[in-house]
Specification:
By secondary structure, this protein is of the alpha/beta class. 33% of the residues lie in helices and 23% in strands. It contains 13 helices and 17 strands. The chain starts with a helix and ends in an 18-residue tail after the last helix. The structure holds S-adenosyl-L-homocysteine (SAH).
């Protein structure tokens, strides 16, 4: 009875065209079981725990974005790209998105006509408004609206901001983002402040974080806490460790760990995220953390290449790469640095499986994998895996050198894993139609 109710509740009118919720209509418990099976297929010989699900698996997405355009009759529409295309499927409301964000997007659509703001046409390059992104902060309630325009000039911008704020006094900041490129990326690099601070602040695991439009932040705040707590449990920090937070984003994992470690080093490629991370460390008075704006693989390689006497001794590595997984350079450097434990956080079980295989061959044993359902109703699943060092430093060095030539098999390995799991194409870290970017 309960299951039937769940199944009925989850039918969305645009589910098929949108393609974002692959598990529509499947009772939640069953979704979790399917995810566990998928993870088991991908990660090989490691204990996979039951996925941790949500008590209320709806409206969890704190980052919502809508593409803007026109239908055949010329009416303004907004929503998501139809699976595999750039045709917009109008979306009125979405069962996984924050409802406040959806309401704001609907208001913006309604305001366009009176402000004579044209939507952007991808083919002709004519028009102004491309996307709207809304970010909501779970703990503080702050809301950031990002208007993504093809040009930096928004006519009557003050009145537009006034009208939007009048309809939604809950909005705490509005930013104009300029994206004048022919690209499938939603945001451009330039942000112009229209109202408020230009970012939201949220609270997570006892710290407060600023999150700018271009910085990554986990989309499901409730489950992020669960994920981080598990990651900290696996790390078993005592206060004496040197810890690396690789692919650190705005520094959330590193700052959570810093309270229980001697020192933390955060590495992140995106300059916007690093700026946020530095501001966040200051804000939280976190003094034992340092950030490097660099490719994580390059950074680790440099660290590993330091002469033995000068080499930083790393005890624990947290790594949380994008969907494409980590790089050989990174993994090889980890094995050379030989930390006791690696805590691998991943949003793609396929690339996770590939990377775990590499680590197995380079002196590490995956001990346990905890799936955490960050993305209910979709076929995505987040995982946190504890790896422990099995070989001593020299042994792993030797193995690493020996395996160097074998590294070419790395991509081949991934293809094999995917084929075995009857799987989909690799996911890019860029937003793709029919698939949400986290
Ligand atoms: N750990 C963070 C962010 C995880 S998302 C959190 O929990 O919020 C992955 C992050 O990796 C993103 O911030 C992305 O900008 C960054 N990234 C992607 N490729 C990278 C690379 N080659 N080197 C370092 N960081 C990278």
């Amino acid at each position: 009875m309960e299951k039937e109710k769940n199944a009925k509740q989850s039918i969305c009118p645009v589910a098929k065209k949108c393609g974002g919720c692959q598990f529509q209509g499947i009772p939640y418990e069953k979704q979790l079981e399917k995810k566990r099976q998928l993870v088991k297929q991908c990660v090989g010989d490691v204990r996979v725990l039951t996925p941790i699900g949500m008590a209320k698996p709806e409206h969890y997405r704190n980052k919502v974005h809508a593409a803007f355009g026109r239908d055949r009759k010329g009416n303004v529409i907004c929503g998501v790209y139809e699976s595999g295309t750039h045709r917009i499927v109008p979306v009125e409301g979405c069962m996984i998105e924050d409802e406040r964000a959806d309401a704001i997007i609907a208001t913006i659509r309604g305001l366009l006509k009176s402000f004579r703001i044209k939507t952007y046409d991808e083919d002709s390059g004519y028009g102004l408004l491309r996307h709207v992104m809304v970010r909501t902060a779970h703990a503080t309630g702050e809301i950031l609206v990002v208007l993504v325009l093809a040009s930096p000039i928004l006519p009557a911008k003050n009145n537009f901001v006034k009208a939007l704020r009048a309809a939604h006094p809950e909005i705490t900041s509005i930013v104009l983002n300029v994206n004048d490129r022919h690209t499938s990326m939603v945001l451009g690099e330039r942000n112009i402040l229209l109202y408020g601070k230009g970012y939201i602040e949220d609270e997570l695991c006892g710290n407060r974080y600023r999150i700018s439009p271009n910085s990554f932040y986990q989309v499901n705040a409730v489950q992020t806490k669960v994920l981080y707590e598990k990651a900290m449990e696996y790390a078993r920090l005592t206060g004496k460790e040197t810890v690396i937070d690789a692919y650190c984003g705005i520094g959330t994992i590193g700052m959570t760990a810093a309270a229980h470690a001697k020192q933390v080093i955060g590495v992140e490629l995106n300059p916007s995220a690093v700026r946020d991370a530095i501001a966040n460390a200051r804000r939280n008075e976190c003094k034992n953390i340092t950030f490097y704006n660099e490719d994580a693989g390059e950074y680790m390689r440099r660290l590993a290449a330091a002469p033995a006497g000068e080499r930083v001794s790393v005890d624990v590595v947290f790594m949380d790469p994008p969907r494409s997984g980590s790089s050989e350079a990174f993994l090889e450097a980890v094995s050379l640095l030989a930390p006791k434990r690696v805590v691998y956080i991943s949003c793609d079980p396929h690339t996770l499986g590939r990377d775990l295989d590499y680590m197995r061959k380079h002196g590490y044993r995956p001990i346990e994998c905890q799936p955490v359902d960050m993305f209910p109703y979709t076929d995505d699943i987040e995982n946190v895996v504890l790896l422990e060092r099995t070989a001593n430093r020299n042994e792993s060095k030797r193995k690493s050198a020996a395996a160097e030539s074998g590294n070419r098999g790395y991509q081949k390995e991934l293809r094999k894993v995917r084929a075995a799991a009857g799987s989909r194409r690799p996911k890019a870290s860029k937003p793709q139609s029919g698939k949400r970017a986290h």
